Amino acid sequence: MAIHTPKTREDLARHLSPMRLQATVFERAVAVGAAESRTYSNGAPKSAPNMTRWYRTVEVIHEQLMLLQLDWKRSDPQNLPYFSQTDLNLGLITSSGDEFTGIAWGTPSTKNPKGSAFARRVDENGQMAMFGQPTDDGGEIDVKYLWILLYNERDGMVFLELSRPTSMAGKQIDSWSERIIFPPFDLALGAFSFEEDTEEDEGFGFTVARR
């Protein structure tokens, strides 16, 4: 498993640019999702803050990807919000993560069990079971590489990563082939906590071999 931990905005851009992505897409989405999750009182259903965070995160990612004008498309197979970049055969799904999200030494998973629409998009090789998947406009998507944006709020920060799953155990992901761990999003600052003043501007990366 390859793990990348970019520390500066420039280094994060080096990881995202080949996928036709920008850090601002996720920075904006995380900020809006966190803010919207705080609009409820104690009288609201317990699930309301987390569900609203997911709704708004997906919505803002959609808006930001469309603004990039880099050929990202949106479809909703079985009501699962799904983004794809067909030139690069990429797919992107957003999900809340568990307490190991954004930690290099941990093995994260989705926070909640996932249904069949989610599970069918991951097989044991980390490839996509989505060949010939119809889109809303009548076309088809040929996606080979699925990336999942995981996010988890704790200790005044939102930890997030963009990672490629390889398999699921039951209804949750249990292994990954590659992880791009973002600097935590500081809720007080409203921005990623980049280390812009560090002398060494290249993020740390390493590979973990499963035993």
Q: What report would you give on this structure?
A:
The protein is α+β, with helices and mostly antiparallel strands and 211 residues long. The protein has four helices and twelve strands; from the N terminus they run E-H-H-H-E-E-E-H-E-E-E-E-E-E-E-E. Strands 1, 2, 3, 4, 7, 8, 9, 10, 11 and 12 form a ten-stranded mixed β-sheet that branches. It has a two-stranded antiparallel ribbon with strand order 5-6. A hairpin with a 4-residue loop joins strand 10 (185-186) and strand 11. Helix 2 (23-37) packs antiparallel against helix 3. The longest helix has 21 residues, at 48-68.
Radius of gyration, in Å, reads 17 Å
Spatial separation of the terminal alpha carbons? 11 Å
Mean pLDDT: 85
Order of helical and strand elements: EHHHEEEHEEEEEEEE
| Low-confidence sequence ranges | 124-132
Number of strands: 12
- Class per helix and strand makeup: alpha+beta
Summarize this entry quickly:
This protein has 211 residues and is an alpha+beta fold. Helix content is 23%, strand content 30%.
SSE blueprint and pairings:
Blueprint: E1 2-5, H1 9-16, H2 23-37, H3 48-68, E2 72-75, E3 82-85, E4 90-96, H4 116-119, E5 133-134, E6 140-141, E7 145-154, E8 157-169, E9 172-181, E10 185-186, E11 191-192, E12 204-207
Parallel strand pairs: 1-9, 4-7
Antiparallel strand pairs: 1-12, 2-3, 3-4, 5-6, 7-8, 8-9, 8-10, 10-11
Which terms would index this structure?
about 210 residues, about 30% strand
